[in-house]
Structure formats: C-alpha cells, structure tokens
Design brief:
With 441 residues, the protein is of the alpha/beta class. It has helices spanning 12-21, 61-65, 83-92, 102-119, 136-142, 157-169, 173-183, 191-194, 197-211, 230-239, 306-330, 376-386, 415-426; strands spanning 3-8, 34-40, 57-58, 72-75, 96-99, 123-124, 147-154, 221-222, 241-251, 262-272, 284-292, 295-302, 361-371, 391-400, 403-410, 413-414, 431-440. It has 13 helices and 17 strands. Strands 7, 8, 9, 10, 11, 12, 13, 14, 15, 16 and 17 form an eleven-stranded mixed sheet that branches. The protein has a six-stranded parallel sheet with strand order 3-2-1-4-5-6, sandwiched between helices. The radius of gyration is 25 Å and the shape is elongated.
Length: 441
C-alpha cells in the first residue's frame, strides 16, 4: 500500500515536485510508493508542463487537507494565507506536512509546531531554506552532537546576483536591479529580497534549529542592500573585501553566569576575500556552520528554482514515508498520537533571547562626504576616540571640487558606541553626508 500525497500548488516548485513523483526511475525505491493523489490549483484550465488526470486536480484545497485518504500534505503555494490556515487544518486532521514556506514558518512556527506536537505529526521544511541545499536535516541530525556556535549564510540568490554583478561590472544597484528583473532573477516587487526580509525569515529558521529554541521573527535585525553603491564595491575591493548580504546567527559572547543571548541579523557585510563565503557568486547560496568539535562545514549549491527546491521537498516526503512504512510494518502505531522521532520533530518550546544590536561587537566600514578643509580628518578621529571607537584605517580617497571622500574601517567596537559617534559626526560642520555604513566580518 502506497502513501497518498496531497499537493497544494502547482507553480514552479509544485510542478518540479510532481515531475519527480511521476518519474521514479533510478531514484530511491521508496519514490515508487508515493502516490500523487490530489493536487490543488487555482485554475483547472491553465496550461501546464506536467500532465495529470483530471480527477487529480481540484480548486478545493480544503478538500485535500481534510481527505481521510491523504497521508502527507505538501504546501508549496507560498505566502502567509491561505498557507497558514491550510497547514493548521491539515495538522488538525492528523496529516503530516511538508512545506517550502519560509515566511509562514518564520512568522507562525510557534503555532504550527505546537499544533503538530499535540497532533503527533511531522512538519518538515528542508525546502524553506537554501533551495536544494541539504541544510535543515543536517542541522537536525548529522550535526546534532556538536555544540554549534555560529551559522553564517548567503541565503538569497537575488541579492547575491545583484552584488556579484556590481562587483564584476562596477554598475550601480538600481540599474542592475532593473536588469535582474528583466532577466527574471528579481521579482517585479523586489522588496522581500533586496530589503533582506527573505533572508531574515531563513536565518530565523536556521537559528531555531542550530540553537534549539524558537526565534521571534520581529526581533531579527534586518537591513538590505539598497544603500550599497558602486563606490562602496570599489573601496571594498581596494581594501581586500567583497560585499555580500549575510544572514548571521551566533552565540553572543557573555560573562560567566550571564543568561545566554543570540545574535540574529541580516545586513550587507564586507567579507575578506580569503573567507569561504567570499567566492560564492551569482544566484548560488552557501551556509557556513561552525561548531565544536566539528569546526567549520559549508553547504553550497543552487538556492532556488524548480528542480533544486523540489529535490528538498521530495526528500522530506521520503523521510516521513519511511517512518510511516516502519510503523505500518511493525504495527507500532497506537490509537493515540504516535511517538515522533525527536531528531525530525520540533521539540523545543522556549524562545531564545536575542541580543540588542547596540550591544554587539563588530567591525565597521563607513564612507563620509566632507568639505575639503583642513582639520576634518582630525575631528573625525577625535570623535571616534571619544566614543571608544578604535580605527584600523582612515583614508581620504578622493577629492572632487570642494568635496572630499573619506573611508574608515574600525577595529572590533561596540555597535552602540559607533552609532553614538556617527550621530555626533553628522552634526559637525564640514560633514556633508555619511552615505554608507557597513559591518565587516
């Protein structure tokens, strides 16, 4: 007896998922036992690149998540609603769920995983982060014996593509974004990508898995790439860096007996060229995980697209099907909720404490436009010193007419002190603008 799959959505990822399920040759033998039983779509008449019998397709998505015959519901419609409601209804009907929906999980994970635990079902989400890159399952299983310290990733292909082209061509953000939209690498409304919201959803999920607690998505610091200019790309190059939009989750250094806090943040960052993430270009994603005793491991690959994301979706379906097959074979399931594999199910209930940004210690890059008058560099240096901001370098890089451009890179400093210094500098006579401030890895 096979396992009946109810697929919600037949867009890019849904179509890729259906293609795998309908073509099991040379895949794991368990794929042959997966029956694409019902598929929910918006329109029955839309031309599709996958052929399905008419009785499989339906516009009534509720009928799929409540159907007693369906074993696993696969949600790939995206967005917050009706995805959230359908997932919860599937759980209420004791269906296992596979989803690629990072936005719904990042915002409603508490509600979804609490309901799943009570119903005794799995909610798996490998496809929600990193497309086809296997990173969710390794965090849950392969790396779970480690004491993890940090997860640092390039997890948004659109912004990485834009920054790569800016680096290679010397172009400005707005022009390359427009070209990326024309080529289909960026959405017509690119806000979720270029403002870092998509990456923030993903790092909230990765942080939760890495550090064993729930993450309040609203507490994740989020800064996009709109402020990054061709000038910043060029200065980074001269200083030995490339600029990447990084999603970072790490344990915050703390004194003995202090409660543990995490740093969870997304922002453009100057990355040293020798760093493993510096050479990850175009639409590719990579996630670097650091822990003890393993050291560093990096997961790299295509972060989006029908094939890669569908690969992750079907791997989750197979994980659940394998457990169901064992249960059926041994007749171990009881009338009550079945025991869940603690390495696959979500077992944590508490929320992690997130450190305020002003308490973080990091390096900074800043670019200043000033009047070309004597003493400006001295005033900058004095102000930074007054706020305990130690400078690694301070260089007047360019003079155009009466305007000078000054670039500084700091040593590790307290972010709150750096922000106070900037506020004071903005008010100084002779300072025209501070167009860019970026963190340095």
């Amino acid at each position: 007896m096979g396992f009946k799959i109810g697929l919600l959505g037949l867009g890019t990822v849904g179509t890729g998922t259906a293609q795998i399920l309908l073509d099991p040759a040379q895949r794991h033998p368990l794929v042959q036992e997966l029956d694409l039983y019902r598929v929910g779509v918006r329109s029955l008449d839309k031309p599709r690149s996958v052929t399905l019998p008419n009785h499989v397709l339906t516009t009534d998505l509720d009928s799929i998540v409540t159907d007693p015959a369906v074993d696993i519901v696969v949600e790939v419609i995206g967005g917050l609603e009706p995805a959230r409601s359908l997932i919860l209804k599937a759980i209420a009907h004791r269906k296992h769920v596979v989803t690629a929906n990072k936005a719904a999980i990042a915002r409603f994970g508490d509600e979804i995983f609490t309901a799943a635990a009570e119903a005794g079902v799995y909610v798996l989400l490998e496809a929600a982060v990193g497309g086809g890159i296997p990173v969710i399952e390794p965090l849950k299983q392969s790396l779970c014996s480690n004491r993890l310290q940090a997860v640092t990733g390039i997890v948004n292909g659109t912004t990485n593509y834009i920054l790569t082209r800016m680096q290679q061509e010397g172009g400005d953000f707005a022009n390359i974004l427009a070209d990326a939209q024309r080529l289909g690498y960026a959405e017509a409304d690119p806000t979720a990508d270029v403002d870092g919201l998509d990456a923030a959803d993903k790092i909230a999920i990765l942080a939760s898995l890495a550090f064993g607690g729930r993450i309040n998505r609203a507490e994740v610091y989020c800064e996009g790439i709109r402020q990054v200019s061709a000038a910043d790309i060029a200065y980074a190059e001269k200083l030995g860096f490339v600029i990447k939009l990084l999603a970072i989750a790490k344990r915050n250094p703390q004194a003995e007996n202090e409660p543990e806090q995490l740093q969870v943040r997304v922002h453009p960052t100057l990355v040293p060229k020798a760093h493993p993430l510096a050479s990850v270009n175009d639409v590719y994603n990579a996630i670097l995980i650091e822990g003890e005793p393993i050291g560093q491991v990096m997961f790299f690959g295509p972060g989006a697209g029908a094939g890669p994301t569908a690969s992750a979706v079907v791997s989750d379906i197979l994980n659940i099907a394998a457990i169901l097959k064992v249960e059926r074979g041994s007749r171990a399931a009881t009338d009550g909720a079945p025991l869940l594999d603690p390495l696959l199910a979500c077992s944590h209930q508490h929320y992690c404490a997130i450190a305020p940004m002003e308490t973080l210690t990091t390096r900074f890059y800043a670019r200043f436009l000033t009047q070309d008058t004597p003493g400006v560099i001295g005033k900058l240096g004095t102000c930074f010193g007054d706020h305990q901001v130690s400078l690694e370098s301070l260089v007047q890089t360019d003079v155009r007419g009466q305007t000078a451009e000054i670039v500084v890179v700091t040593h590790d400093v307290l972010e709150g002190n750096f922000r106070k210094a900037l506020a004071e500098i903005r008010a100084m006579s002779g300072i025209n603008d501070i167009p860019t401030t970026l963190r340095v890895l």
